[in-house]
Structure formats: structure tokens, C-alpha cells
Amino acid sequence: xxxxxxxxxxxxxxxxxxxxxxxxxxxxxxxxxxxxTLLFIxxxxxxxxxxxxxxxxxxxxxxxxxxxxxxxxxxHIVLLIYVxxxx
Length: 87
Prior knowledge:
This protein is elongated. It has helices at residues 2-27, 35-44, 46-56, 63-86. The model has no long low-confidence stretch (mean pLDDT 95). Helix 1 (2-27) packs antiparallel against helix 2 and helix 1 (2-27) packs parallel to helix 3. The protein has one domain. It is built from four helices and no strands. 25% of the residues are buried.
């Protein structure tokens, strides 16, 4: 059970960092992280992505991010509830 929390925490920290890095690259006009990559990272760590979107004010107007990232978070919550009910 602790392992699951650690994995979840690391995934969310990484996704948060990806949004920060991409925002910094956007500001400095450098090569950016692809949107598909950011969405995939959001699937793995949605809470970190939401926090990164809010804190860095990044990808907040993109409809795909506004719909999919909260959806990924709901999926994570449902899966975590299901897994903890099995334990």
C-alpha cells in the first residue's frame, strides 16, 4: 500500500515538473514538449498536471487539457478506491 502511494507521488511530481519545464521553454522560445507527451504524463500523474497547469498558468485554455486532465484524475480516484477496497 505504501508503494502505491510512493508511485503515485513520484508520478505527480514528475508531471508537475513537466508542465513547469514546458512553460519555461515557452517563455524562452525554445523547443517545447509535445502536447501528446504532456497528455500522456497527465494520464500517469493527473494531480501534478492540474497543479502545474494552475500554478504555471500553462495549457489552461486548451480544450483537450481542460477536459482530459480532470478526467484522468477521476479515473485515478476511482482506481485507487477500487484497489484499496481489494486490500
